[in-house]
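Q: what sequence does this backbone want?
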């Protein structure tokens, strides 16, 4: 009798056309910083062929922080939730979760500021920033689902209650440096996801199964990102030791296409779903466009049901799975009863999987 948690609305901060940057412009910026990709020879014509399937990304001005993007996504989410559920009210939001690979501040937390800025009463909702990493949005959704269940049971609530997942990423502009080809990888974005939890008997819709896990024995794979308070990072720019020779890249890709794929396949099997026979969708992380598609294929999904916007938006870190999901909902690609898998991975190393039935 743990009730039902449905995703009733999604939203994002809408990119400005003037801030979308194509590969040709990125290559020019890199050349100005001493990285001439044209010297790599035949087959590396990025402006024409793309960077692993990426052709553009949203780069916000330096004054636009991850939290500002998150607030825009949050305001858009309120409108979407009001349209989806006439009974919704901001004063009924009991959980606010978020996270970012590019937080503009550690203190105060972005989720606390979101709660205080978007009309949720003081000392009413729990708010927390989930671990800073590419998997933090899906991880935050798992925690949001479990928190709503616990609140309903512990407080003996019988009416619907609501939760928000709001993530902002300015990683393309604020936490990346134009000193290596990695600069082509990242983009900015912000997403909002609204959940409604109905206490009582579980329905055969909404979130059905979750899994979060750590593979800390692979922690060294992402140390070259060089972000944090470690004294060895003093004086470094974010991503300052990635460079052309940083270990972040091939080793991480091998891990994702190996152990991470196997973990997802076991999770899918535990959900008793055959991705090729059932109407199953994968909305995963966007390492690159090609990387997202290959991950889906290796995990057993049909190519047309691995939905990614990485070609236009690049790698937006934690917001990637939710941006992909929101785009598919906006395009009306998903139907009630479809099986949806939201997948996040990263940090060093960790995974977060959510299986839900679209309502």
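A:
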């Amino acid at each position: 009798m743990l009730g039902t948690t449905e995703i009733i609305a999604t939203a994002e901060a809408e990119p400005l056309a003037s801030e979308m940057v194509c590969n040709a412009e990125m290559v020019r910026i890199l050349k100005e910083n001493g990285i001439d990709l044209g010297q790599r020879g035949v087959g590396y014509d990025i402006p024409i062929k793309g960077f692993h399937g990426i052709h553009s990304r949203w780069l916000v001005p330096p004054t636009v922080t991850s939290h500002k993007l998150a607030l825009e996504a949050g305001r858009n989410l309120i409108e979407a939730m009001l349209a989806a559920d006439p009974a919704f009210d901001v004063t009924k939001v009991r959980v606010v979760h978020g996270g970012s690979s590019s937080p503009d501040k550690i203190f105060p937390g972005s989720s606390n500021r979101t709660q205080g800025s978007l009309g949720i009463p003081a000392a009413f909702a729990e708010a927390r920033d989930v671990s800073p990493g590419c998997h933090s949005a899906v991880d935050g959704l798992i925690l949001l689902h479990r928190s709503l269940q616990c609140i309903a049971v512990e407080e003996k609530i019988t009416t619907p209650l609501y939760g928000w997942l709001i993530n902002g990423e300015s990683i393309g502009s604020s936490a990346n440096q134009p000193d290596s080809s990695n600069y082509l990888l990242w983009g900015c974005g912000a997403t909002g996801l609204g959940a409604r939890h109905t206490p009582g008997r579980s329905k055969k819709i909404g979130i059905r199964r979750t899994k979060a896990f750590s593979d800390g024995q692979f922690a060294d794979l992402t140390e070259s990102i060089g972000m944090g308070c470690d004294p060895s990072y003093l004086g470094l720019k974010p991503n300052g030791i990635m460079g052309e020779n940083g270990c972040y890249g091939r080793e991480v890709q091998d891990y994702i296409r190996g152990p991470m794929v196997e973990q997802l396949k076991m999770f899918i099997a535990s959900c008793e779903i055959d991705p090729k026979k059932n109407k199953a969708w994968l909305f995963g992380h966007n390492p690159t466009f090609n990387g997202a598609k290959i991950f889906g294929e290796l995990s057993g999904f049909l190519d047309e049901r691995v939905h990614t916007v990485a070609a236009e938006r690049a790698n937006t870190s934690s917001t990637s799975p939710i941006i992909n999901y929101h785009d598919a909902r906006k395009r009306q690609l998903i139907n009630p009863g479809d099986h949806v898998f939201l997948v996040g991975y990263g940090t060093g190393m960790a995974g977060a999987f959510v299986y839900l039935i679209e309502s």
